[in-house]
Amino acid sequence: MHDRAARSRSGLNAKPPAKADGTDPRIHVTLSQLRSLEGQAHGLRFLPRQPAASVFNGRHASRLRGRGLNFEELRDYLPGDDPRTIDWKVTARTGKPHVRVYSEERDRPSLILVDQRMSMFFGTRHAMKSVTAAEAAALAAFRILDQGDRVGGVIFGDEFAAEIKPKANRSARDRFLTAIVRANQMLRADAPAVDTPLSLNLPLRTAARIARRNHLVIVISDFDGVDDETASLIGRIASTNDLVLCPVTDPMAEEIPAGLKLVVSDGELQVELDTASGEIHKRLAEFSSGRLSEILNWQKKYGLPVLPLSAGEETVPQIRRLTGLTSAGRR
């Protein structure tokens, strides 16, 4: 019943693929649904050294640091060593060329912030934005853990935020996925309105507290309700960590058609918006583009990679395409 109401509310009225428990996978996710993505996460990258076609190699240079290097030892220079690793001070002091040897840092912590607020419970074509966010978060968690790094995150709704501290084991990953499913399944078309919904700033403050330095932080959200504090927190996190922003949008937000009648509800009251009205159409378009403009400003100011996700298509193919693993002409 709830899924039927959500499909009517969002426009997703086509017959959904069957699921064992009878729910619509475009409306709500299940633990088995997220776990089934593990095999498809292989090869995905949320870190530097992207393929040439990746959005991480876009017009704005990315300042992603990637893994750090741990100093191991000083030793005599050997033929074939990279001259850039020569320690000139030691070489001058000893009279013999020495090189500094480093090993790549392992067990790097990652934090994935997953938005499951009511603003994410909307979709007009393929799935709800909340489902796209949940799937993207699961893919990131699988890939991070597969690399031997620690994974954790903050899953938040309108009235709560669940914190999972980064750990490099499957039980931590399963707690993370379970928290996503619980938050996602709390979203209902007939849910009562919340007086003061949780803002994005609270999970960002949590991320800033946990990720003091050298973390990978991925924010998957529609970035509803951003303000000056949001921009300040984004800059603070980006200054000492690798920060990737994944704005989740619906195709309708990209181009609001004129002459469309929308029924908007807060769970108790509802109003009809007719985009045939030039003023209403203009204001809706400005509201939609304004949020994206803010994110693009952060991208330019802080050198952040932005991975824009659409609820209008399947999650895996678009991530592969956006990170350069599949050409734009192949779907």
Question: And the CATH topology of the largest domain?
Answer: Rossmann fold
Mean pLDDT: 79
Major pleated sheet: 6 strands, mixed
Low-confidence stretches: 58-62, 263-267
Number of strands: 10
CATH class of the largest domain: Alpha Beta
Number of domains: 2
Spatial gap, N to C terminus:
34 Å
Describe the structure.
It comes from Roseibium alexandrii. Residues 73-280 form the DUF58 domain. By secondary structure, this protein is of the alpha/beta class. The chain has two domains: 2-64 and 107-322, Rossmann fold (3-Layer(aba) Sandwich), CATH 3.40.50; 69-104, no CATH class. The chain is 35% helix and 19% strand. The chain contains ten helices and ten strands. The protein has helices at 2-10, 31-35, 88-94, 129-146, 170-185, 201-210, 228-240, 251-254, 278-302, 315-322; strands at 69-76, 98-104, 109-115, 150-156, 161-167, 216-221, 242-249, 261-265, 270-274, 309-310. A six-stranded mixed β-sheet has the order 5-4-3-6-7-10, sandwiched between helices. Helix 4 runs antiparallel to helix 5 (170-185) and helix 6 (201-210) runs parallel beside helix 7 (228-240). The longest helix is centred in the C-terminal third of the chain and has 25 residues, at 278-302. It is elongated, with a radius of gyration of 22 Å. It starts with a helix and ends in a 9-residue tail after the last helix. Residues 58-62 and 263-267 have low confidence and may be disordered.
Quick description:
It contains 10 helices and 10 strands. It has helices at residues 2-10, 31-35, 88-94, 129-146, 170-185, 201-210, 228-240, 251-254, 278-302, 315-322; strands spanning 69-76, 98-104, 109-115, 150-156, 161-167, 216-221, 242-249, 261-265, 270-274, 309-310.
